[in-house]
Amino acid sequence: MELHILEHSLKVASIEKEGIQICTHGLIKLAFLASKTRCKFFSLTETPEDYTIIVDEEGFKELPESEHISVADATWLALNVVSGGGNASNSQPIGVTKIAKSVIAPLADHNISVFMLSTYQTDFILVRERDLPLVMHTLSSEFTLLRVVNGETVAAHSLGVTNGFQAFEGRQLPRPIIHPLSSPSNMFCVTSLDPDTLPSVATLLMDVMFYSGGPKEPGASSEDSSHIRFFSFSLIEGYISLVMDEQTTQRFPNNVLFTSASGELWKMVRIGGQPLGFDECGIVAQISEPLATADIPAYYISTFKFDHALVPEENIQSVIGALRTNESAGQ
After folding, report:
1. Strand, helix or coil at 308?
2. Which of 55, 240, 247, 308 has the lowest CB atom count within 10 Å?
3. Does the pLDDT of residue 2 top 60, yes or no?
């Protein structure tokens, strides 16, 4: 398999809920008027706590300076595993559990922090730019390493990294889960739409993105305290990905969203009892390895404060059981 190192230099930022109105002009431009910007990588995820933005340097220029915006202290690069060659964005998604043992676990064992963004099309593994030499050294035996330069895929050089790193012999011990887990009551859809249809649903999407603090949508029980707000929109190299709960999906016109024939729904596992930060290593591995062992597919979305795994609804009880077992092992 190939590991593509994308050319985007990325910023990860948090926008406080009370500050979202000062950013809407730039965010609308990035989401709906991409042709008016030079941005190629943009993702916006709303959680109950805040909005998380992942955006390249060109897109970051569209956001104002504000005390309501916190930016992670690093530049990030996106890695993408491609099976059988081809463009990362139009290949079949590999799945986070499929790369748990070949990418995520080795990086965790070398104390390399990762930030995950699963989309409808693929999975992006974000690493700090300064960690790239160690990342390449760690993964070079498993993957053909390629860099994307000016849109062209070329062989990645080793950056001269040959000494000073210990060989990875393989991990024998289970990786205990050390952060609290919770599972909201709502069910989620992972979907996409044709960029050409974006104007027809732009008003609805703006409402979903920026006005979620208003009245509850029909079907969302006000007594259901475990029903959380979660919405993710990504526009990356021309491909759109959406993650939203079932009630939000029902607001869209028929035949606009790409969905599987089975209409598969996903349940969420939220990781973290308090903000996780960016320096801890192995959080994604703690979750993805047990899922990979059980052969359960998953999407994984990291945000500024918490992590989120999405698994098929029929697997949620077995997933919680397996993760609780690992959680107990860490106590």
Report:
1. strand
2. 247
3. yes
